[in-house]
UniProtKB/TrEMBL annotation:
UniProt GO MF annotations: single-stranded DNA binding
InterPro entries: NA-bd_OB-fold (IPR012340), Primosome_PriB/ssb (IPR000424), ssDNA-bd (IPR011344)
GO biological process per UniProt: DNA recombination; DNA repair; DNA replication
Renumbered ranges of motif Important for interaction with partner proteins: 155-160
Protein name, UniProt field: Single-stranded DNA-binding protein
Keyword Oxidoreductase listed: no
Record's GO cellular component terms: nucleoid
Classification via SUPFAM superfamilies: Nucleic acid-binding proteins
Native species: Paenibacillus lentus
Pfam families in UniProt: SSB
TM helices/strands, residue ranges: none
Chain's gene name: ssb
Functional note: Plays an important role in DNA replication, recombination and repair. Binds to ssDNA and to an array of partner proteins to recruit them to their sites of action during DNA metabolism.
Stretches the record annotates as Disordered: 103-160
Keywords assigned by UniProt, alphabetized: DNA damage, DNA recombination, DNA repair, DNA replication, DNA-binding
Length: 160
């Protein structure tokens, strides 16, 4: 069985950081994910999906993510339930994220906070050089790219 989800969307509000009674960090935020079609009025609709992060990832999200920021979230879907004040059973579906990435810098969009030189998620950096591997050539990034030189290999070297 597989329970895996990858979402790309914009934060609808700043992440909310809290701590459990035992001191574990937990962050909640919602991302708006566009649907692949438009409504009858020509408007593109979106789904608003709640996301929860735990521990170090929760603290990192609270420090770096801001409303409007384009973000990728990877995790699993979890359904939990509880009884509300009226005694009615309430079901909550949310994504428990284990990986979150920035998909743009502060200068590219969103309403992010101050400029930061480091992006803890490994995506674009929010300040300074937006490509961490800029000192590598394109061929170093893609080991299968064609560099234009013939490959010297005999049939005996092939494993098949």
């Amino acid at each position: 069985m597989l329970n895996r989800v990858i979402l790309i969307g914009r934060l609808t509000r700043d992440p909310e950081l809290r701590y459990t009674p035992s001191g574990v960090a937990v962050t909640q935020f919602t991302i708006a994910v566009d649907r692949p079609f438009t409504s009858q009025g020509g408007e593109r609709e979106a789904d608003f999906i709640p996301v929860v992060t735990w521990r170090q990832l929760a603290e990192t999200c609270a420090n770096y993510l801001r409303k409007g920021r384009l973000t990728a979230v990877e995790g699993r879907i979890q359904v939990r339930n509880y009884e509300n004040n009226e005694g009615k059973r309430v079901y909550v579906t949310e994504v428990i994220a284990d990986n979150v990435r920035f998909l743009e810098s502060n200068r590219e969009g969103g309403s992010g906070g101050g400029q930061r030189e480091e992006n803890p998620f490994g995506g674009s950096s929010a300040g300074g050089n937006s490509n961490r591997s800029s000192n590598f050539s394109r061929s170093n990034q893609d080991p299968f790219s064609d560099d234009g030189k013939p490959i010297d290999i005999s049939d005996d070297d092939l494993p098949f």
